[in-house]
């Protein structure tokens, strides 16, 4: 079994303004295939690091619910943190048909060696593995899950062992490093905006077991930092223009009062990163900025929305928009 070790937040996440003595823990470095691979250019937000590491260090019996708009850095934020703490992650994405057995495991016919006749074997699901080995169970888009199925998790969220009836009543006790983190665009109370298809209202008793943190789109300085890391050779004026354009699009999307947006798509950090990368890739082509914007966002929009977005970009870029 791998050893649990302390990590300095300052060193592990390159946060120069955090005192050296602030620590969290994780596992000793290993090549466990479930440890997420890390993106060296990833830009961390201090508050997010603080909240997530506080949870990982001491969950006090809670699970963690990370909520926020699409492409804001929820999933990657968690896997990038886990990567630096060498904490293996069992990751799945929920949908309306997900059942508890998908998480626990099932019997399957498995050939011990290629060509040999198959034998029945119990295949442990991500929940069972995470509980046994002390991994993080990361359920993405949790609010797409059927609330009745999700409520089946309540017992283990409370620290009780998992009993696998299908496998001869096997009992799996939770490893002290077992954690549950979920992400979703809503907060489990349904989707009031109507933007997220398939979001279900979750059971209030199930939601009561989570600690919530919100991840919005990063502020301008952080997004400039992200673009500086993913597309360092792109002209700085262009990077600034991209972040400004993204923020103007978000304003139009949200509207003045938060619910009267004029367009139905927005520019996520994911889109922004894609826009910058494609602009570099197509450098030299005529009007690269527009070409890359088409591919990263505009193709998904209606004509009017596309025109509104193009107007914003032209205004922001001025002479640079060629
Ligand atoms: N802080 C960051 N540094 C670098 N890249 C980032 C950062 N935040 C987001 N990104 C980029 O945005 C992409 C999307 O992030 P992520 O998958 O974490 O979003 P999400 O919030 O989980 O979205 P969804 O709700 O659609 O699941 C990442 O793959 C990465 O390219
Ligand atoms: Mg995600």
What report would you give on this structure?
The chain has helices at residues 9-13, 46-57, 74-84, 100-104, 126-133, 147-151, 154-157, 204-207, 220-230, 236-254, 269-281, 288-296, 303-317, and strands spanning 4-8, 23-27, 63-67, 89-93, 105-110, 119-124, 136-140, 162-164, 170-172, 179-184, 210-214. The chain is α/β, with parallel strands linked by helices and 322 residues long. It has two domains: 4-214, Rossmann fold; 220-320. It has a five-stranded parallel beta sheet. A two-stranded antiparallel ribbon has the order 1-2. It has a two-stranded antiparallel ribbon with strand order 5-6. Strand 5 and strand 6 (119-124) form a beta hairpin. Helix 9 (220-230) crosses helix 10 (236-254), helix 10 (236-254) packs antiparallel against helix 11 (269-281) and helix 10 crosses helix 13 (303-317). The longest helix has 19 residues, at 236-254. Magnesium ion (MG) binds next to helix 3. Residues 74-75, 140, 183 line the site of magnesium ion.
Approximately how much beta-strand content do the residues carry? 15-25%
Question: What is the succession of H and E elements?
Answer: EHEHEHEHEEHEHHEEEHEHHHHH
How would you name the CATH homologous superfamily of the largest domain?
P-loop containing nucleotide triphosphate hydrolases
Number of DSSP strand runs? 11
Main-sheet strand order equals 4-7-10-3-11
Helical amount among residues, as a percent range? Answer: 25-40%
C-alpha geometry: globular
Q: What is the CA-CA span between the terminal residues?
A: 58 Å
> Tally the helices: what do you get?
13
Largest sheet: 5 strands, parallel
Weakly predicted, low-confidence segments: none
Q: At CATH's second level, what is the architecture of the largest domain?
A: 3-Layer(aba) Sandwich
Radius of gyration: 22 Å
Assigned CATH class of the largest domain? Alpha Beta
Mean pLDDT: 91
Could you please say which CATH topology of the largest domain applies here?
Rossmann fold
Write out the distinct hetero groups bound to the structure. Answer: adenosine-5'-triphosphate, magnesium ion
Number of domains: 2
């Amino acid at each position: 079994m791998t050893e649990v070790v302390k990590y300095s937040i300052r060193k592990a996440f390159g946060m120069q303004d955090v005192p050296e003595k602030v620590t969290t823990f994780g596992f000793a470095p290993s090549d466990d295939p479930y440890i997420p691979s890390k993106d060296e250019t990833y830009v961390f937000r201090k508050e997010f690091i603080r909240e997530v590491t506080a949870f990982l260090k001491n969950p006090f019996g809670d699970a963690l619910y990370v909520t926020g708009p699409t492409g804001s850095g929820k999933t990657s934020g968690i896997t990038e943190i886990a990567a630096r703490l060498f904490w293996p992650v069992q990751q799945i994405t929920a949908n309306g048909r997900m059942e508890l057995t998908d998480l626990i495991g099932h019997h399957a016919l498995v050939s011990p060696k290629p060509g040999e006749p198959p034998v029945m074997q119990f295949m442990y699901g991500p929940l069972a593995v995470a509980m046994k080995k002390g991994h993080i169970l990361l359920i993405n888009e949790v609010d797409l899950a059927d609330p009745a199925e999700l409520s089946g998790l309540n017992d283990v969220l409370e620290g009780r062992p998992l009993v696998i009836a299908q496998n001869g009543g096997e009992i799996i006790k939770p490893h002290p490093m077992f954690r549950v983190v979920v992400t979703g665009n809503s907060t489990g109370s349904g989707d009031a905006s109507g933007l997220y298809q398939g979001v279900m209202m979750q059971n209030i008793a199930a939601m009561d077991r989570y600690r919530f943190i919100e991840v919005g789109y990063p502020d301008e300085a952080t997004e400039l930092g992200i673009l500086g890391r993913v597309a360092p050779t792109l002209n700085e004026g262009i990077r600034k223009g991209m972040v400004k354009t993204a923020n103007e699009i978000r304003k139009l999307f949200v509207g003045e009062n938060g619910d009267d947006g004029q367009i139905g798509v927005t520019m996520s950090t994911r889109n922004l990163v894609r826009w910058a990368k494609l602009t570099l890739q197509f450098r030299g082509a005529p009007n690269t900025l527009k070409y890359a914007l088409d591919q990263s966002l505009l193709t998904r929009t209606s004509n009017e929305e596309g025109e509104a977005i193009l107007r914003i970009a032209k205004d922001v870029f001025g002479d640079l928009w060629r």
